[in-house]
Amino acid sequence: MLPLALILKGHGAQVAGSDRSRDQGRTPEKFAWLESLGFDLHPQDGSGITGAEQTLVASAAVEDTVPEVIRAKEFGCPRMSRAELLATLFNAAPFGVAIGGTSGKSTVTGMTGWIMTHAGRDPTIMNGAVMKNFASPDAPFASARVGEGEVFVSEVDESDGSIALYRPKVAVLGNVSLDHKSLEELRQLFGDFLARADISAINLDDAETAALAPHAKALVTFGIASPDAQIGATEVVEGPTSLTATVLDRRDGSSHALVLKVPGRHNLYNALAAIAAANAAGVAVAEAVAGLGSFVGLARRFDIVGTSPSGVTVIDDFGHNPDKVSATLATLKAHPGRVIAFFQPHGYGPLKQMGHELARVLATRLGPDDMTILCDPVYFGGTVDRSEGSERIVRLIEADGGKAEYVPSREDCAARIAEIAKPGDRVVVMGARDDTLTVFAKDLLARL
Asked: 83: alpha, beta or left, given left = phi > 0 and alpha = psi -120 to 50?
């Protein structure tokens, strides 16, 4: 909700709000920053709803029993979901670039937005993560940018089906894999998404994505392995914190040297997606590649917190589904050193949906010396079924031949990691839907 609030305020709207996290005392610095910008923040007790002229915007996770919802009904206030509001703003923009896919959306959005900024297009950007290129002491939570240009770059979410609300000029699809919905549902959602766009940028290396190509009106294709991809990459050299490659534009035979300040082959795919997206929006491939040279990444996307005096490196990462976790672990395992993977599941529902696939990734992507440690899933209240939790995932990992421990309390997980960590280890903190994971990662580093 934060980036949407920033965009609305940038357009002159009066914005107020409440958040259960604020009432619980979590990430107080974020809420203090919002108040410094002039946002009116209230306890989540309904006191912020004062009249029928207000519009209540609530995420899909907000239940009808929340006091704001009850008060809004009493006043007869219009209600919008987060996705409905974002789609309204996006569809009103002259030129919308929508970033879709199961994994990598936030990074591709940040990369595409940075390319557009570098190219002088002055875009508005809506992201699910803090974009380091736009962060500053005055804007430490820069998950949105309000521009004066015609371009609106936004990630769009398939997990709740709201991707169906968007009418992009350019649609980007990087991958399709199991997460919140079945593959059958995802194929329908993403196929319709491509069909609504004037032009689509798709990854030919991903079989599910490539199979949806016939839905698109026009295409810019990308990939590393596929010889049919219009925009490709060769001469890939991966470093622990960076990557270089040569980008090929097979349409005109040109080649361009790419230097990324973010590591991992998955980020090369993200970069190719952003280059293709920008090119579909009228930016030359050479200019897009040049812009990415100064892209410095997103918070919580393989975000290196630091290395302790004892030589243990801590990495903060958003990995929370099988594809994202696999990409993060592959990046780590491309270089020497033991990996301790801490994983906090982002909910009981998602864990039940993708538990087998997640456990297989954690068991097979890590080596015999590596270790996975899981705490209980995120739970901030509500009526979700909590009968199957992290202990089940540990059993599945062990059944697949991996090493894992279930430690219910996150604080106890930190103590366990501090107990077993050795010089040269890499500790990766993974999970989503919990802003305090970054604080946990920093506190963990201080203990090592």
From this structure: alpha
Q: Residue 21 in 3-state DSSP?
A: helix
- Which of 10-19, 44-53, 108-117, 386-395 has the weakest average pLDDT? 386-395
- Report the chain's terminal Cα–Cα distance, integer Å: 34
CATH code for the part of the protein at 84-292: 3.40.1190.10
Give the CATH fold of the 303-447 domain: Protein-Tyrosine Phosphatase; Chain A (3.90.190)
The set of residues, in sequence order, having a beta carbon less than 8 Å from that of 361 and lying 6+ positions away, is 322, 325, 326, 329
Closest CA to 434 of 341, 331, 317: 317
Helices (H) and strands (E) in the chain, counts: 15, 20
For 330-343, b/e burial (b = at least 16 CB within 10 A) is ebbeeeebbbbbbb
pLDDT tens string 349-373: 888 888 899 999 999 999 999 999 9
Q: In the chain, which residues fall in CATH 3.90.190.20?
A: 303-447
pLDDT above 70: residue 179 = no
Q: For tokens 């892209």, name the residue.
A: 295
The answer to whether domain 2-77 has CATH 2.60.120 is no
Distance CA 353, CA 320 (A): 12
